[in-house]
Every structure is written in structure tokens, then in C-alpha cells.
């Protein structure tokens, strides 16, 4: 028992951080090119979209829910914003407004439906995903439009030698961290995810808290859509397929339990960056994209299992 | 009555349940079939061709790959689990079958067996990890799905791969009595088999008990781990069969052939009244759920809406049906 709890303390912290340390050590030994400023900036740019989605998803998961609609919401924003801007600099503000309004609006709709219908959030947001995909494809089934120069710069440019998208992720992470751990809303959110009945009996406005969580998730999806548009350079209607599952993977790898009640935005973002690091390193090693998928899936399974086995050892 | 026995009474399928329970369970099952009938009537009003037996037979044939896979996933979901790797497993089944066949009729039998074995192996791996580590099935099977898509792409090199032997597709597409294709019959047969497992076997009963309350099931001495393992293995096996059905239907063995099918399968199972929480629903409802999805798709085409409006209809049907079930259950408990 003593030994077990010591073991537990020794490996404390989300397993993803240990994977990150291991990867960095490997990179230092095998891939000197990995630490070049250009490559590190690339990792940050590649990870930014997933990091934004992971931030929003963390709020929903902490509430004990899930939001599968974010991949297709990001895609809808991407396609509409691309068509709206069509490369014109003066349309940037309008596109940002569209991303914020559509993201928050669809998020609010999902939240309202969740509260009104009280069906499993997984199935509700699966329905939303399907509807949003249909709307996107009805709007266009081929690539159209282009980002404005400012959006392209946001996704691919430099500011004080750093990628602007990375700075955006940092700011969003900071705000989200404060919201989750240092506000009444954050405490209430964790209470709702931990035990919804108790939260309701304690007088917490459960529906309101859940609504806000979905709005945050939608908002992050809207911004992620803009960023993805900047990366791709065109409004591709299949751009965000599967992103929702990647976001959930990042959140879980960060140590947030799907059961809800606790979680960390910083760890989710770290996990998204680690996933970006893995694919960047595999690219540098010229591993085929197929084998990359096998390795990525393997990493997910192994990290989840490590996180799973640990508490049992401690018991 | 001891507590486990009460649990049994609350959760058992019709087979061993006292009469009043049975009476209360029926409306929900009936509701989903009534929705299907209503949809068919609507289709008949909107289009003369829709209710012709050949057209209906075609719908059943279209539904076969997803329907067959959904039978296995229903077992897992009754248990309170989920299998997100089902789309990847269907792809794997199709790819393995086509690759082993390599265009030779003599290879059909080994190809079919190997595709089933591959599916069952994936399911067994999922089941073992879930049963013995208690890992969240949602996230584990998501990891399995990513890995499997990589594996199938490695097999195929990313393009369509393998050659379907002459006779394979033809055999599945013969219309019995000029109406129901063999592939449709296969779906009906697999569903019947699944229904028998669910209703008539001890294993089937244990699924409901464990899904209702895993802790009680364990305390009652049920072999929880073994049941979980078998359920996921069956889900993988039916996924492999779904891959065969996909190959027989489309002839395509691309590694991403069934990518996204996991969501369609989940939608069909949930439409049929089986929940993520487990302990309720069943394969009968799933069959109706699958048919509703495909009748609705065809209806969208018949009415002349844009092709992609199928997706909007599907999403709306998923949400509306789940909300309706919720109301019905609450009304019954009140």
C-alpha cells in the first residue's frame, strides 16, 4: 500500500507530460532539426487549430458533456468566411464578426437544445454535426473563396518572431484557465460535471452554466475555422472532418475525465501541442502518413491505458 | 426478493420478464416500427415507385453494411459501452476480403473467413482492454479507429486495393423471387441471429443486467469481464461481416470506404431506442432504426431535395427521435 501510493506520487501529473518529455529527449537525440526556431514555429502553427478546439471542448467535458459538432461548425465558418472575404483585405473584420457570431450562435443553439430536450449530449451534438455538414455541403460541395491577407498572416505569419496563431492560443488559454479555475462560473461548471443533482440542489443555475459552456465551445470552433482557413488558403468543405474527435482525444490525453467534474485547459492545450509534435517529428523522419496514423492511434491508446492503470495501482 | 433479482426483473428482455413489464416495454418498440410504417406511407403518397417490392428490396440491400454492423454495436451499447472503431472495422473487413480474393473465385472462402477473423480480432482486442483495464470505451475505440485506418491504408497503399473475384458480388446481388437481393437477406439473417443471441441466451440477459448496473452485476457474481469481452468481439465480428457486405454492395475496397460509418451506425442504434447509458433497447429497434435512416435518405432523393439535404434530415431525425424517446420514458415513469 505504501509502495503503491509512493509510486502514484512519483508518476503524478498527466501522462501526456511524460510523453512530451520523452519525445523532446528523442528529438534532441535523433532530430537536431526539430529544435530550429523555424520548425518549432511550425509545430506551433500546426497545433493552433486543434489547441483552440481543445480549449472549448474542455469546458464542455468538465460539465460532463461532449460537443461533437465543433469540427463541422469550424468547417461551416471556414467556407462562409472564405466566400465572404474572397481574398479582400477590407472584409477581414466582417469575417471575424461572422466567425464569432456563428460560432457563439450555434453553440448557444446547441446549449438551448441540450437544456430543453435533455437528451444525451453525444447524440444531440452528433445530430448537430450531421445537420451542419449538410448545410455546408448544400452551400458548396467544392472549394471556394480565399482568406484575406490578415487571416493568412494570423495562421502563417510572424509577430515578434512568434507565430500570431500561437499568441492567440496563449491568450485564449490564459483567459480560459482563469474562467475555469478562478471564477464562480468555473466552480459551478465543475460542480455540474461532478454531480449534477447536487449542483442543482445547491442552487446552481445548471442550465445557464451548461449553455455558457456550449457557447464557449462554439466560439472556439468559430475561431478555429478562421485559423484553419488561413492555413488552407481556400474554403474547402471537407476541411474539418474528424476534428471533433481529435479535440476530444486532446482533452482526454490532457487528463480531463470524460465523466466530467474536473479538467485543465492548460493540459488540453499541451496535449494538442504534443500531438502536433508527434506528427512534426514523424514528418521530419519521413514516416509515411499511413504509418503516422498507426503510431498516433497507438500513442492515444497507450497514454489512455497508462492514465487508466495508475489509479488501480494506487488502490 | 434480493436486490440482484429486482435488478433482473427491471432489466431483463421480454423472455423472462413478468407480464406487466412486458406490456410496458412494448409501446417503445412499437413506436419505432410505427414511425417506419408512417414514413413508408408518406413515401407511397409522394412517389408511385417507392413502395414497389423491388425498390424496397433495394433499400434493404443499401442498408445491409451499416445494418449488419449495427447489430453488433447494439449488443455493446446495451452493455453500456460504445464502439467507435466500427467504421474502421468495416473498412478493414472489406480491404482484407478484397486483398485475399485477388480476383480468384477459389479464394472467396478463405477471404471471407479472414475478413471475419480480422474483425473479430479487433473486437477482441477492444474488449480485452476495456474489460481488464476499465478504460473509457469511447476514447479507447477512438484510438483503435485511428490505428486501424492507418493499418488498412498501409495494406492498400491508400488507393482501392485487391480485386473482387468474379461471382462474389453477383452471388450477393441475385434477387430472390426477383425482389429481395441476397445481401438484403443476409442483413435480415444476421439481425435474426443477433436477436436470438440477445433474447434467448444467458449472455444476452447479462448484457442488460450489466448495462443497467455494472456494480450490482459484479456483486451478483456475473462474469462481467467475460461478457464485455464477448460483446466487443461480436461487435468486431459483425463489423467484419459489414465489410463483406460493403464489398458485395459497392465492389469498393478503399481503406477509407467506411470512414464516418461509425456515426451512421450509432445513429441507427440510438434511433432504435438503445441508449448510451445502457440497459435498454435491442436489436429489433436497431433494425427499424437502420431502415428509417435509409428510407428517409431515399425519400429526400425522391422528393427532389438536394442530395446533401439527406444529412440535414438525418441530423434532425436523430435529435427528434431521441427527444421523443426521452418523453415517452418519462411519461411511463410518471
From TrEMBL, chain A:
Main location: membrane
Cellular compartments annotated: Cell membrane
Sorted UniProt keywords: Cell membrane, Membrane, Transmembrane, Transmembrane helix
Keyword Membrane part of the UniProt annotation: yes
CDD domains: TM_PBP1_transp_AraH_like
Origin: domain of life: Bacteria
Membrane topology: Multi-pass membrane protein
Chain segments annotated as transmembrane: 16-36, 48-81, 93-112, 119-139, 159-180, 209-230, 236-258, 290-309
One Pfam family matching this protein: BPD_transp_2
Protein name, as recorded: ABC transporter permease
Organism: Rhodoplanes tepidamans (Rhodoplanes cryptolactis)
From TrEMBL, chain B:
Compartment(s) of residence: Cell membrane
InterPro entries with a match to the protein in the record: ABC_transp_permease
Pfam families given in the database record: BPD_transp_2
Sequence intervals crossing the membrane: 30-47, 59-79, 84-102, 108-131, 138-156, 176-197, 228-248, 283-301
Coiled-coil annotated residue ranges, if any: none
Key words, A-Z: Cell membrane, Membrane, Transmembrane, Transmembrane helix
Membrane topology of the entry: Multi-pass membrane protein
Predominant cellular place of this UniProt entry's protein: membrane
Top-level lineage group: Bacteria
Protein name: ABC transporter permease
Amino acid at each position: 500500500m505504501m509502495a503503491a501510493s509512493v509510486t502514484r506520487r512519483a508518476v503524478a501529473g498527466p501522462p501526456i507530460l511524460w510523453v512530451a518529455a520523452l519525445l523532446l529527449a528523442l528529438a534532441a537525440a535523433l532530430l537536431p532539426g526539430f529544435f530550429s526556431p523555424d520548425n518549432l514555429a511550425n509545430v506551433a502553427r500546426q497545433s493552433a487549430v486543434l489547441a483552440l478546439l481543445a480549449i472549448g471542448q474542455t469546458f464542455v467535458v468538465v460539465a460532463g458533456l461532449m460537443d461533437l459538432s465543433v469540427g463541422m461548425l469550424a468547417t461551416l465558418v471556414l467556407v462562409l468566411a472564405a466566400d465572404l472575404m474572397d481574398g479582400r483585405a477590407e472584409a477581414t473584420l466582417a469575417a471575424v464578426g461572422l466567425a464569432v457570431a456563428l460560432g457563439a450562435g450555434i453553440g448557444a443553439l446547441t446549449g438551448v437544445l441540450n437544456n430543453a430536450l435533455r437528451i444525451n449530449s453525444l447524440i444531440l451534438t452528433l445530430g448537430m454535426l450531421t445537420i451542419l455538414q449538410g448545410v455546408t455541403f448544400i452551400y458548396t460541395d467544392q472549394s471556394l473563396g480565399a482568406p484575406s491577407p490578415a487571416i493568412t498572416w494570423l495562421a502563417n505569419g510572424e509577430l515578434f518572431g512568434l507565430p500570431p496563431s500561437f499568441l492567440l492560443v496563449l491568450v485564449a488559454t490564459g483567459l480560459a484557465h482563469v474562467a475555469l479555475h478562478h471564477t464562480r462560473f468555473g466552480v459551478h461548471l465543475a460542480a455540474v460535471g461532478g454531480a449534477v443533482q447536487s449542483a442543482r440542489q445547491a442552487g446552481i443555475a445548471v442550465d445557464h452554466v451548461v449553455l455558457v459552456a456550449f457557447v464557449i465551445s462554439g466560439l472556439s470552433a468559430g475561431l478555429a475555422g478562421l485559423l484553419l482557413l488561413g492555413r488552407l488558403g481556400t474554403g474547402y468543405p471537407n476541411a474539418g472532418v474528424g476534428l471533433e474527435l481529435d479535440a476530444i482525444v486532446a482533452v482526454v490525453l490532457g487528463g480531463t475525465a470524460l465523466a466530467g467534474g474536473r479538467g485543465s485547459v492548460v493540459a488540453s492545450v499541451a496535449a494538442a501541442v504534443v500531438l502536433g509534435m508527434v506528427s512534426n517529428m514523424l514528418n521530419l523522419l519521413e514516416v509515411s502518413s499511413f504509418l503516422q496514423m498507426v503510431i498516433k492511434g497507438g500513442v492515444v491508446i497507450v497514454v489512455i491505458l497508462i492514465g487508466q492503470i495508475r489509479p488501480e495501482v494506487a488502490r | 426478493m434480493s436486490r440482484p433479482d429486482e435488478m433482473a426483473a427491471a432489466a431483463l428482455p421480454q423472455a423472462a420478464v413478468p407480464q406487466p413489464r412486458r406490456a410496458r416495454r412494448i409501446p417503445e418498440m412499437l413506436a419505432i416500427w410505427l414511425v417506419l410504417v408512417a414514413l413508408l406511407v408518406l413515401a407511397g403518397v409522394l412517389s408511385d415507385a417507392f413502395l414497389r417490392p423491388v425498390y424496397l428490396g433495394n433499400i434493404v440491400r443499401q442498408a445491409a453494411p451499416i445494418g449488419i454492423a449495427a447489430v453488433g454495436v447494439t449488443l455493446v451499447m446495451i452493455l453500456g459501452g460504445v464502439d467507435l472503431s466500427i467504421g474502421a472495422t468495416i473498412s478493414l473487413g472489406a480491404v482484407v476480403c478484397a486483398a485475399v480474393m485477388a480476383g480468384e473465385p477459389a479464394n472467396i472462402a478463405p477471404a471471407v473467413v479472414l475478413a471475419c477473423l480480422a474483425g473479430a480480432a479487433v473486437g477482441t482486442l477492444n474488449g480485452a482492454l476495456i474489460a481488464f483495464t476499465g478504460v473509457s470505451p469511447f476514447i479507447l475505440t477512438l484510438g483503435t479507429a485511428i490505428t486501424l485506418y492507418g493499418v488498412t491504408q498501409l495494406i492498400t497503399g491508400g488507393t482501392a486495393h485487391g480485386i473482387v473475384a468474379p461471382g462474389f458480388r453477383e452471388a450477393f446481388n441475385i434477387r430472390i423471387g426477383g425482389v429481395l437481393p441476397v445481401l438484403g437477406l443476409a442483413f435480415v439473417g444476421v439481425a435474426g441471429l443477433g436477436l436470438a443471441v440477445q433474447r434467448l441466451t444467458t449472455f444476452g440477459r447479462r448484457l442488460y443486467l450489466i448495462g443497467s448496473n455494472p456494480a450490482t452485476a459484479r456483486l451478483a457474481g456475473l462474469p462481467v469481464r467475460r461478457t464485455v469481452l464477448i460483446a466487443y468481439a461480436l461487435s468486431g465480428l459483425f463489423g467484419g461481416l459489414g465489410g463483406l457486405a460493403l464489398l458485395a454492395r459497392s465492389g469498393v475496397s478503399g481503406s477509407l470506404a467506411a470512414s464516418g460509418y461509425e456515426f451512421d451506425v450509432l445513429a441507427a442504434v440510438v434511433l432504435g431506442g438503445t441508449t448510451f447509458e445502457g440497459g435498454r433497447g435491442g436489436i429489433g429497434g436497431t433494425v427499424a432504426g437502420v431502415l428509417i435512416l435509409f428510407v428517409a435518405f431515399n425519400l429526400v432523393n425522391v422528393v427532389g431535395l438536394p442530395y446533401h439535404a439527406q444529412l440535414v434530415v438525418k441530423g434532425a431525425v436523430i435529435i427528434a427521435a431521441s427527444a421523443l424517446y426521452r418523453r415517452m420514458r418519462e411519461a411511463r415513469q410518471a
